[in-house]
Amino acid sequence: MGTPQDSAPPKSKRASILGLALPSISLFLIFNIVNLAVIKIVATLGTPEVAAVTTGSRIFFIVYAGIMGLSAGATALIAHAWGAKDTALAALYTNLSIKLGIALTLVTSLIFIVMVPVLADLFQLQGQARVATIDYVRYSSLFNINFAIIILITSAVRAAGDGWVPFYLTAITNALFLPLCAALTYGWPQLGIPELGIRGTAIGGGIAYLLGSILTWGLWARHKLLIPAISASFKTHRAELKRLWQISYPAIAEQLVIQIALFLFLIIVASYSTEAFAAYGVGLGILSITIVIGAGFGVAASALVGQELGAGQADNAVSIGYRTLFWAFLTMTIMGGLTIYFATPLAAAMVDDPEVVRLTAVFLLMLGISQPLMSVDFALGGALRGAGDTRFPLISTFSGFLVTRLLTALLFMSLGLSVEWVFGALIGDYIVKAVMIFWRFHSKVWLHKL
Fold it and tell me: Which of 336, 306, 436, 334 has the alpha carbon at shortest distance from 377?
């Protein structure tokens, strides 16, 4: 790895909001579609295999929480350095975040490989579903490091203002993902590929991540990406490592809080009926397609606000936050309106049971009302993280998701109200988060976090 000159200025022009948001939205959309397609691939194997993939996805959210939280902290520091035209410092934080991500992922993956039988029992899986889950998690865990490498390098490049190269790299990986999954799941005799079932699904996806990480790492190491590669170590850069961790760990904790709250809310919904449980699952599947817009604008706000603060342009950072909110609010309000209008047809397209369709439509109504509120959380929450203020989004998520939503749902349940009221607790959650995030951003205290 070479060492760039400290004074070397970034070669690219400052990216625009849409220039970063659009490739990110496209990327998140592809990722969600691929996840749904994987379930379709294993569906022909049987219900136990579907349960294995579903359970495995829930378990791996712990890994994803660590990676995404670390990438949020790294984005703030890399964008800040890039805005200050300190290419070497941006490269240093990139190197440290990749190494820290590999270390964290290695530890968690080893834990999963050893503890997955216990985790399967916690999910009350039995028989073939338990066996399939253990196989799927163990074989998938072998490739988690490759996933981390792709995410952290592409996040660093995005923090420097390049949204399309990360899109191309991840799109190539996902383009390999489904064919390899299908080939190793069902077999391809003409090429001598055996039928491996659920193990093949895990190995096929893992190979796609392996190839994607080799491509991404190779381009980065050969200085073909916007962020150059330099040599760095934890021992010689303890101060920078400590700073990276201090900004990253609240974002990691926030992701874990979200997963815990989702799980607990799912238990409450499931206590009503199987139909309510199914409606919640279908509704979340549809929501995952619509909220990618907000997530994309959050990525753009994080990178651009960090760059402007690094350049010493505090007023521009504030302006970018509000402009990003405008675009996110506009598009998510439109998506929310469409979700409400087409709630019943969307539900009917996913399931046949009349009661599940009815409850899904109610759930989609609540989600549609909440989407304008979500835009505040995504856009301005992303801006706060880009400024290094990662603790306040954690506080707002805890207050909205884990306290407001769950306590409201438990109150409705204790009063004997129907599950439709429990679904309505989502609105209270997003009102609390939107108010807290907007207040924090408007206060401008976050301008001095970095």
Answer: 436
Return the pLDDT at 200.
Answer: 93
Please name which of 331, 336, 51 lies closest in space to residue 346, comparing C-alpha atoms: 336
Spatial contact of 85 and 10, defined as CB atoms under 8 Å apart: yes
CA distance 112 to 138: 7
pLDDT at 9: 41
Cα–Cα distances in Å, from 354 out to 160, 277, 341, 421? 49, 14, 18, 19
Orientation of helix 354-386 relative to helix 47-83, angle to 10°: 20
Within 8 A by CB and 6+ apart from 403, the residues are: none
DSSP one-letter code for 191: G
In whole angstroms, what is the distance from residue 378 CA to residue 208 CA? Answer: 30
Residues with pLDDT less than 70, the chain: 1-14
Residues 387, 317 contacting (CB under 8 angstroms) = yes
Q: Choose among 298, 254, 243, 259: nearest CA to 391.
A: 254
Phi/psi of residue 61, each to 5°? -60, -25
Q: pTM of the predicted model, to two decimals? A: 0.89
3-state secondary structure of 196: coil
Gap between the terminal Cα atoms of the chain? 28
In this structure, are residues 347 and 301 in contact, taking their beta carbons and an 8 Å threshold?
no
Q: What is the 3-state secondary structure (H, E, C) of 114-150?
A: HHHHHHHHHCCCCHHHHHHHHHHHHHHHCCHHHHHHH
- Residue 193 — φ and ψ, nearest 5°? -90, 120
Asked if residue 402 lies in contact with residue 261, where contact means CB atoms within 8 angstroms, the answer is: yes
What are the extents of the domains in the chain? 14-236, 257-450
- At residue 53's C-alpha, the angle toward residues 68 and 112, to 5°, is 60
* Residue range 30-41, pLDDT digits in tens: 888 888 788 788
